[in-house]
Write the structure tokens for this entry.
Amino acid sequence: LYAYFPGAPTWPPFRRDLKYAITATSATSIDRSTLSDVFARAFSRWAAATNLRFTETASESDADITIGFHAGSHGDGEPFDGPLGTLAHAFSPTDGRFHLDAAEAWVAGGDVSRASWPGAVDLASVAVHEIGHLLGLGHSSVPEAIMYPTIRTGTRKVELEADDVQGIQSLY
Ligand code: TQI
Ligand code: CA
Ligand code: ZN
Ligand code: ZN
């Protein structure tokens, strides 16, 4: 079953059109257009299940959600830990910060199961999971759910499960 954060915070009803900015990208070698594409597809999966809309903006000051790659300590008291361990984190509504560990061997756009490196992590799968957190979902006890707290490296999981859809539809 799906879960919420304590107090079940959500984006309020008058904020259904959320803007996101991909801001800190200097710490990753993934190109900008690939990042735009991966995050747009990840947001679209949640948009399809709700009345929420997501639009990329180039202006950080306009953005409700900011996405960036960071290495080690990066100013929020939750330092990243190098390859594997913590891959990414996102804060609950309406904080909007979504950080990815720049030290991961991210696979974007390719087939992670065929990556030549054992620590390969599928960016799209992590993005869909973290957006769930940004919108107010905690962890699910259903192993097939996007919001389940573990994923095997080298796998891809991007389709919302019935449990994820029920969770997000109970919030929005
Ligand atoms: N990052 C954890 C996560 O997003 C951070 C975290 C731990 C967390 N407990 C939390 C965030 C409670 C919100 C609420 O779950 S992670 C996966 C998964 C991580 C893990 O790097 O461990 C994914 C990030 F589910 F696959 F294991 C993305 Cl998809
Ligand atoms: Ca890490
Ligand atoms: Zn952070
Ligand atoms: Zn999580």
